[in-house]
Amino acid sequence: MTEDDITQHIIDTLGGGHFQVADDNTFFFHGADNRFPFATVVTKDNASDSASKLDRPGVFRLNVGVGKETFRALFGDEPAGVDFAALDTLMPHPVYAKMYWVSVINPSGKTFETVKPLIAEARSLAAARDKGK
Questions:
Q1: Per residue in 49-66, is it b (16+ CB within 10 Å) or e — as a string?
Q2: What is the number of other CB atoms lying within 10 angstroms of the CB of residue 48?
Q3: Any idea where the DUF6194 domain is (predicted)?
């Protein structure tokens, strides 16, 4: 899967949401206020997030904010020993795992199929938060 393929899939499923590109990273929002994205595609390291080694050529990371139960079902309570630079591997987010975010670097088509329901869940959670305001 390419970054563009993933971005297009998420755009196609936004259902009233929108996306914003900033510094070559893409942020997907459910509501109109840009308060907090439900998914992101990032393309480079920064001072607070470099564990994924995104500065490698052609490397990007898809990040998705899932629910607590989903996160724990995938990784348990305290994930340990994660190689945050591994390609095509669903993993806890290197910085936002405590907020129940998951990540995958350069997912294959097969891996992306397993991530699609996580994206749908993240969007639903964002919609519920927006509705609760």
A1: beebebeeeebbbbbbbb
A2: 7
A3: 1-131
Q: Is 62 helix (H, G, I), strand (E, B) or coil?
A: strand
Residue 3 structure tokens: 């970054």
pLDDT tens digits, one per residue of 79-129? 999 999 999 999 999 999 999 999 999 999 999 999 999 999 999 999 998
Tens of pLDDT along 47-78?
A: 999 999 999 999 999 999 999 999 999 999 88
Tokens linked to 106: 């350069």
Phi/psi-derived region of residue 77, left when phi > 0, alpha when psi is between -120 and 50, beta in every other case: alpha
Domains identified in the chain and CATH numbers: 3-131 (3.90.1150)
Geometric angle at alpha carbon 72, from 69 and 77, rounded to 5°: 130
Q: pTM for this structure?
A: 0.96
Q: Which two tokens stand for residue 47?
A: 């001072």
The sign of the dihedral angle between the CA atoms of 42, 46, 51, 56 is positive
Q: How far is CA 32 from CA 87, 98, 105, in A?
A: 32, 25, 28
